[in-house]
Structures are given as structure tokens and as C-alpha cells.
Amino acid sequence: MELKVFLKIKKLGYLEKFFVENIFFKDYGEIGLDLLSPEVDFDREDGSGKKWRVDFILQTKKNKFAIECDGFNYHAPGMVDKDRFNELEAKETYLSQLGYRLIKLSKDQIVDDPQEAIYYFRRAINLDKELFNIFSKRNDTLINPSHVQRKALEALSTSRKENKKKGIVVLATGLGKTYLAAFDVKFEKAKTILFIAHVEYILKQARNSFEEVIPDRSTEMGFFTGRHKEIEGRHILFATIQTLTKKKNIELFDKSFFDYIIVDECHHSSAKSYQIIFDYFQTNFLLGLTATPERHDQADIYSNFDNNIIFEMYQEQAIKEGHLCKISYKGFLDNVDYSNIHYNGFRYDVSDLNNLLMIEERDKAIIKQFKKLADKKKSIGFCASIEHANWCAKSFRDYGYKSIAIHSKINYLTDEYFYYDSQEIISAFKDDKHQIVFVVDMLNEGIDIPDVECLIMLRPTESSTIFNQQIGRGLRVSEGKEEILILDFIGNYKTSPRIFSGLGINKQPNWGIHIDKEGKEIYYYDNDGKRVEFDSQVIDIIKFQQSRSDLKIHSEKLSQDWIDYGLEIERLTSEGSNLYWTIGKKNNNLDLQLRALDFIEKNKANYSSNKELSEAIQNNAQEVGKSLEGIRALFFSQILGLIKRTYPFTHSKAYLNLKKKNNEMSRAISDQFEKFYFYNSIFSLTNRHSSETRTVNQFFNIYPIFFIYQIFYVLIQQDNKPTLTKFELEHFVFFMGNNLSVNECVKLIIRYRKDLEKYELEKYLRSKSRMDSRLYKELRNIIYFSYSNDSITLKKDLQAELINKVEKFNTLLASNKLIKFTSENEIEYFEMLWSEKDLLQYHHMKDLI
């Protein structure tokens, strides 16, 4: 129906008329108008006698769409009263029950930004093949250039008019690069054509496309590959680069034989083999086709085509405009630990990957997600190796899925099926004889299987280009296909940030956050037909690897108060300040200290002076290959209270208590650490950079080990994992001045952990810190902690005991009876430190113990 006739007969309101004229008709024309019915009434069937009215109904042979032209605006909560909102909700439910797909457009979209409304509308209905063919100006018997191809053909024509002889067209996978080339050949009336690809299967598909576009020239078409060299009488040749570049083969052709040379997947053209082609042939026009011109190795491909980019439409724009189907990407945490896998700067070692990826427990987790989200969907799984592909195919078969592997070493012969090669399996997959295929590098490029609905990423993403190509395998529009579901399983591999660029998220997106049904925190990004979701742990992994791969500190990403905090750390750790927890720079090897104390206890009567005793201690340490500077090196033992005085040398009761403990010595040492108070007079009270004498409790009034206990206590109360990293301790905890500041410290730590730029923050704070704290390493002596080089975690079996201990300590702290070191009560603190009792026992808390 003509547009004028439609508008005259239907007598639409302003908004509905604007929608038809400026949005619907532009894409679907007169044919589409025959499928569109305005202001359709439905009986409510609730006994009220009332009717529902829908602005438009769009109906094809397969689908029914209900279109509302003010859905987002006037039908939203707050824009209408509660009863009206509930009524509209009931209307939507009713239409859904009748099988209608609801499309809601706002007045603002339609009138203020009609182009965006066109894109949105396309994305909503391109699952319908009939409508997509109307939009694409094609049908089952007639193939014409699509909307995008027409634009590219116009750009090609313009380039030729400007006397350009070479150029590249960049089209996202699924937009029909090969069809574009065939249309250009047809319209330009090229006589002799060479089509080059690196995979034979791509050539077969290319020939099929050319035969569809120019069927009258099918007899002129031939292959030039390792198995077929069809030259005689052929003017349109499909050749593999490997075969054509052999000297004896390329010399079969006159240098000016081909009018038009097409290089498919031209991002490979930086290879030396392609240079042979460029140097040998003299052609009227050289066209490069690619979806992903940027190479991971940064090799230049543009110069081979005179740096002439004729036309480009990348994946993100193609999805936005509705030429490709929508993406729903879900990034799950994969517990595979890549930290010990050999990485050569480009990729991980395949044999190491096989050992880690081919694990039944991992398969169970992956299959669980697949069953929940993609149980019936036609799928492709991308694997790390041939062995891995075979493994995955068998794992999924064991769970009842019709799955098979495709790779270069294929050899299938079973009671169910027999295949000679991978191309037969691809054909079988296209014919739905298998639900899932597992591949290695095949199907990254050039394979057209439009009805694939799910992609499973089972290997580390090492190249954003390849990742983008893999996604492209699922983006083609197909009947009934609303979106491509991508399930990605992401571990702590170095190249994980390339997922962001592969998804077209090159800048920090405005993440939304929600909690899923299982209580997991999910980050999502939803924009123009692309919804991306990550487990929060995955975002953490990617952010970590992103930050580590870039030495530059991006302080512009940080809030001003973090910047200020970094400057404060710089001041506190500067030379002359040193206002952080420390235990000195002398030897702090506790085993060596205890060996020396034992030696002194047994032998001090044999030496007449401390000088002689010190030399003996040095010699004793050398017997076990260690170095100790005599008595003055026992500073660590002094601050722990194991030495009462050094002249005359006197061991404390605390040390003698350790000697008695035998099997419980580790607990006794831990108890002694708990009594350590920072500062005390064993540390110098004089600022060695000036004549200033510090007041002992001017900056610190704290029992450090108990402060760490208190932090664990608060973390547990807040349902946080009781773990502290070395970074957190050294950049937040070790600056705290008293045991009352625990909540302030925990808030700082939690804020750091939740910061979206936490790893940039880490780099920044590390750059500001000049501290030389050796205390962290000594935390391995605390029995409550599981210690590693990077973190301490509260031992689960001792958690209840620690909670009890902290509660008693807090009670003591609140009572103001806790012994603190000051110049007035120095001896009282040291009597407690030197005693055989732990801190709580010494304070006579009999009513609490």
C-alpha cells in the first residue's frame, strides 16, 4: 500500500503518523505497510466489556508484534497513577499470552531522535526473516545488496572515480563481505577476477555466494588449490594463498591477467606470501576484505592497499543499527589458576593448558551453566587444542548432548555417523545433526552458520581480534533468533583485558550492579543491543591484569580523597617521619634469635665481657651458615620481651616459659607477640634527623597484633572473608595509632576493595609509600593466621577462639585498665612483657577467663 493512501485511510494521530512516516516506512516501505495495522482493539475477556487498544499490530507469517508509541514515557511508574500502571501491566501480560512480542517506543525517541528509534525498532524485529528480507531488499529467489552493502558499493564507486586502484573494506562478520565483492564484480562488469583466501572452505563458500549473485557466470568459475587447478576457460578463480604463491603456479598466469583481485580476510596480508601476490600481479583494482583489520602483532596491512580505507562498519555499529543480532554476553569465574602456566608474551603453553582445562570438575561447572542458560541452543565451543576439543565433545556427549569436535586431524567412524573430513562435519552441523561443535581455530573466520544461538568460550582470550571473530560466528540474523548468547569462563590469565576490547568496551563503561538469584554480585553493561554481564570476581581479575600490564599510573581515574591519602602516606613514610609500624632493620629471624638466646643461656658464664660473648654468638651463627652481629643484633628479642637486660645479660621469664613449652612453643611465641606494644622505649625516642625527642604515645598507642585481631573480628561481623593482604596491611593497617581506630581502618579497607579502580589505586599508593616495614613477615609466627607471601587469613578452626579473645581484649580496653606504655609507667609495661603470662592473664581478667 502506498504511504499516502495508508495515512489517508487510517487517520492516525500525530505521534502514530510520525512513527509510520519517519521510522517504519523508511526501512519496510510499501510491502511493510501491508503487514501493519493501526489502533487494534482486543476484548479484555474479564467480564468488564472493556477493550485493550494497541497502537499498531505488525504481523508476518511467523511472528506477531504489538507496538506502543509512548511506552517508555507515559506508561512508566510515576508518570501514571498506580491503578493505570497496573492496568497497563495487565495489558502487556494479556498480549504476551496471545503470542505478541511487545515493542515500546517513547515520544522522545520517535520525535526527538528518529534515527535511534529506527535502530531500536530494527533490533526488536530482525529476528523475523520476512521483515529482515524486506529491510534487506531480498527474498528467497532474489538477492540484492543489503542496506550496508549498498553504502559500501557507493563508497567503492566513489573511490574508483577518484582513480584509486587499491583499498580495504571493513565489514563486521555477518554483514556479507563476500556478497559485497560479488555485487561489485557484477556492477563493475569485471572480466577476470581472482579471489584469494587462506582456507579452502572459505573459497567454497565464496564461490557459492558468487554463483548466487552472478549465476550466468557460474561456468567461468574455478578453484585453484592444492587439489584442484581449474584454469582452462575460467575467468573467476578462487585460489588459496598457499597454492598460488608457489613459483611454478603463479607463473601460469600473465601478470596482467586479472582485472580485479580480492583478498579475503586481508588482515593476514602482512605475511610474506601475500607480498608475492602484490609484487607479481598488475591489476585494475585490488580489494581487501576484513572484519578485523587490527592485528595482535601490530603488523601493518594498510600499506599494501595504499592506506585507503574505502568503507568500514564495525561490529558495535552493525549491532546498534540492527544489521546483526543482539549480544548477551555472560562472563563467569573460572577457577583455573593460570599463574604457573608458561606464558611467552603472546600465548600460553598448550600442553600446560591441556593439563589445567581438561578436568572433570571444570566440565561439570561449565555444563551446569550451559544446561541452565542454553540447553537447547545450537552452539559452538572454542577450545585451546585438538585434545581439548575432543575432551569437551566427549564430556558434553556424556551428559546427553549431540556434540562433536571439528579440527584438522578429524577421523570419525562410529555406529552413529561417519565423516571423511571436517567439512562434512560442518555440513552436518548446519543440517542440525549435531547441537554443539567444539573447535580450535576453525570457524574463527569465513564460516556462515546463521542459526547458531550460543558460543562457549572455553580457552583464555589471548587476542581481541580472534575473540571478535569468534563472536562474529554467532551474529548473523536468523529466523526466530533474538540474540547470540555468549558464555565465557574466565580465569586469572594475563590477557583477560582483551575481552573488553573484543567486546568493544575500550573505555570504562558505566557499569550497573545487581545481585543475582544465587546472591552473586553481577556487573552489567547494556547499550544499543549489547548486554554484557560479569561476575564481580571476573571484573576484579580483568582490572588486576589491566593494571599490571601498564606501568603508567592513571591517577586521573582516582577520586581526590584517594589522591590526598596517597600524599599523606608519602609524608608519613618520608625520611625523618617513619610514622608506621616497624620492628627495625636488624636481623629478625626468630629461629636464629632463639638459637642465640639458647647459646647465651648455656655459655654466658664462660665469657668475661659482652664483647667476648658477642663474638661467640657470631661464631655460633656461622656454624649453621648464618650471620648475626652479636648481642646488638638481638633487638628483635628485646622488643618481644625475651631479654630483660643485656648488661649483665639476663633472660626474661617469658623466654624461660618458651623453653618449657616444647610442643606448645608456637603458641607461646604467638602469645608473646601479642604483648608487643608500639612504640616503647626499646625503640629510639629521639628523632635522629633532629634534636627533637618524641613523646612515646604522641603518634602510637597500640598493641599491633591485637589490632589485626580486631580487624578480623569486624570483618567476620560484617560477613566479609577474614583475609588481609600484605598491601592492605602495609598501606592501611600499619599507619593506625591506637586500638580504638579499628572501625575507621576496616571502612578504609572495604572501600579500597570495592573501588572499581582498586588496582590503579594500588599502583598509586605503592608509588607514594617509602616504608620499610618488616613486620609483615613476622606475622607468620601468629598461630591464628594462615600465612603466605601475599596475605594472611584467619584459620577457620581457631576462629571461635580468636573471637573470644578479641571480646575479652575489647572489654579490657573499654575498662581503661589495659597497660599502656608511657614514661610514667614504663616498668609496669615491661614487667608484663617479660612475664610468663599472656596479655589477658597478666591483667587478672579472672572473671572473663
Written description of the protein model:
The chain has 849 residues and is an alpha/beta fold. The strands form six sheets. It has a nine-stranded mixed sheet, sandwiched between helices. A seven-stranded parallel sheet has the order 7-8-6-9-10-5-11. Strands 1-2-3-4 form a four-stranded mixed sheet, sandwiched between helices. Helix 8 crosses helix 9 (200-213) and helix 27 (704-717) crosses helix 29. Strand 9 (260-263), helix 12 and strand 10 form a beta-alpha-beta unit.
Q: Determine the structural class based on helices, strands and strand pairing.
A: alpha/beta
CA radius of gyration is 37 Å
Beta-strand portion reads 15-25%
The CATH homologous superfamily of the domain at 330-548 is named P-loop containing nucleotide triphosphate hydrolases
Using brief descriptors, characterize the structure shown.
849 residues, alpha/beta, Endonuclease, Chain A, Rossmann fold, nine-stranded mixed sheet, seven-stranded parallel sheet, elongated
Could you give a quick summary of the protein structure above?
Helix content is 41%, strand content 16%. It is an alpha/beta fold and 849 residues long. Among the domains are: 3-136, 3-Layer(aba) Sandwich (Endonuclease, Chain A), CATH 3.40.960.10; 147-313, Rossmann fold (3-Layer(aba) Sandwich), CATH 3.40.50; 330-548, Rossmann fold, CATH 3.40.50.300.
